[in-house]
Write a structure and sequence with these properties.
- A hairpin with a 2-residue loop joins strand 2 and strand 3.
- The relative contact order is 0.17.
- A 7-stranded mixed beta sheet has the order 1-2-3-4-5-7-6.
- It has a single domain, classed as Aminopeptidase, CATH 3.40.630.30.
- The radius of gyration is 14 Å and the shape is globular.
- By secondary structure, the chain is an alpha+beta fold.
- Helices cover about 30% and strands about 35% of the residues.
Length: about 160
Amino acid sequence: MITIEKLTESSVEKVRQILLTEEQVTFAGTAEEFLKSGTDTIALHIIKLKNEVVGFFKIDVGYTLGDEFFIENGLGLRAFAIDIKHQGKGLGTLCVKALFSYLKENYSSYSFMYLTVNCKNLSAFACYLKGGFKDTGKKYVAGAAGPQYIMQLKI
């Protein structure tokens, strides 16, 4: 069973053990970078399969894409990552689907969640579509990693 929860001190060492491919690090960063990235507007979360930490992501309540795309009453999903040894098993899609319930329960004052996914990262794009995100048909081109699809999930 997949569960999502806010990162706590007791899970920090487990997060440090999460490994990604070199290409995925380009898109999501390392576990260590993730652990250092929490702010007043960015909450760090973990993904568990049974009791094992298998991934992480950030929820950004101050999410913006500049003047290129208006974020309507929305949150941002950032640095969504699943450990390399758990990839290819459909967990990404299950996690994205579990995210919907988590958002309804914990972020109910928001109507949408947005994310950008690199145009080269077709497996992540497909995962988000299967999980319920919609392609807005627009691209974010100001990012350092190249053009990205802008996706939206109605909460």
